[in-house]
Amino acid sequence: MSTTLETARINLRAITEIKAFIARATALMGTTASSFMLQNVHDAVRKVVTEHETLRLSQSVFQAFIRISEQSPAPNAALQSLMARR
To answer: pTM of the prediction?
Structure first.
């Protein structure tokens, strides 16, 4: 089974000092600048997205949420009419 991953180019500009640090770090790690930056950016963006898309609740708030969610009201006339449509 062969999987081909589509790639896309990302261009960026950096000040000379940062570029030199990147070159130094990649040499120490035995990797390429692209691989080094991509892995570190991937870790950073995954963290940002997770922090913004994850809802954290305390145990007491979660239990209250569950209790309220399980207490569904009886359907009103508008909902019954909507559900009767084909």
So the answer is: 0.56
